[in-house]
């Protein structure tokens, strides 16, 4: 695999970017993903300029509905409600942070929807995913705490996982929609197994 200009993909730099650049990239990519939808209408929240909380829904029945509440690539309106055409499912809250973005993927963690944090004993707020090599969710990875093991998350790269060129985060092409779509694929059958055991 090569990227434009013929270069081979490389691991992200893993260095925080200038906040203004991260904010501009996040804003641009967020607008492209939402395509006219409002954060409020979707239940998404920005607790600070470089953070985003995204409600996700995991499904136990076959569906093409996304985990983040709307069909990507389709136009929307500010009043569109999330999950309006989706089946019922298990609700989660994903916390994204963009301090290393766009040179690296966003940091991603599942958090307790009542507290907005993840602490020992909060396993029920973490989905059980199996049967896919694209993503895994660990309650505690090697004593470092929660890890969404997916090349579209910053933590995957910080953990020093081995990777293949197809996993590369390419700053000129990759956006956090990649993160949301990877989770979407994992939060439906046959990969979604319910909540993590307590």
By helix and strand content, what is the structural category? Answer: alpha+beta
> In order across it, which strands form the biggest sheet?
1-2-3
Helical segment count:
4
Strand proportion, as a percent range, falls in 15-25%
**CATH H-level superfamily title:** Ubiquitin Conjugating Enzyme
Following the backbone from N to C, one meets helices and strands in this order, namely HHEEEEEEHHE
| CATH topology description | Ubiquitin Conjugating Enzyme
Uncertain segments are 1-6
End-to-end distance, in Å? 41 Å
Helical fraction equals 10-25%
| Biggest sheet character | 3 strands, antiparallel
Q: What characteristic shape results from the CA principal axes? A: globular
CATH architecture: Roll
Strand and helix layout:
Layout: H1 19-34, H2 39-42, E1 51-58, E2 90-97, E3 107-111, E4 127-129, E5 136-138, E6 147-149, H3 154-158, H4 177-186, E7 192-195
Antiparallel strand pairs: 1-2, 2-3, 4-7, 5-6
Which tags fit this structure?
disordered N terminus, Ubiquitin Conjugating Enzyme, globular, two-stranded antiparallel ribbon, single chain, alpha+beta, three-stranded antiparallel beta sheet
Question: Could you please describe the fold and organization of this structure?
Answer:
The protein has 198 residues and is of the alpha+beta class. It has one domain (19-69, 87-195): Ubiquitin Conjugating Enzyme (Roll). Helices cover 18% and strands 17% of the residues. The protein contains 4 helices and 7 strands. Strands 1-2-3 form a 3-stranded antiparallel beta sheet, covered by helices on one side. It has a two-stranded antiparallel ribbon with strand order 4-7. Strands 5-6 form a two-stranded antiparallel ribbon. It starts with 18 loop residues before the first helix and ends with a strand.
């Amino acid at each position: 695999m090569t990227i434009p200009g013929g270069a081979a993909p490389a691991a992200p730099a893993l260095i925080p970017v200038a906040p203004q650049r991260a904010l501009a990239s996040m804003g641009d990519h967020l607008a492209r993903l939402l395509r006219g939808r409002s954060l409020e209408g979707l239940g998404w929240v920005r607790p600070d300029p470089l953070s985003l909380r995204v409600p996700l829904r995991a499904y136990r029945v076959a569906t093409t509905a996304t985990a983040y509440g709307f069909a990507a690539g389709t136009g929307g309106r500010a009043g569109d409600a999330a999950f309006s055409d989706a089946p019922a499912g298990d609700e989660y809250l994903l916390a994204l942070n963009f301090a290393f973005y766009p040179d690296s993927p966003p940091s991603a963690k599942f958090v307790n929807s009542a507290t907005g944090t993840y602490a020992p004993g909060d396993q029920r707020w973490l989905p059980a995913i199996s049967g896919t090599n694209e993503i895994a969710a660990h309650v505690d990875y090697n004593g470092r705490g929660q890890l969404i093991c997916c090349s579209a998350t910053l933590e995957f790269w910080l953990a020093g996982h081995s990777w293949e060129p197809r996993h590369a985060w390419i700053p000129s092409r990759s956006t956090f929609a990649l993160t949301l779509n990877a989770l979407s694929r994992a939060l439906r059958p046959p990969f979604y197994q319910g909540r993590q055991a307590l």
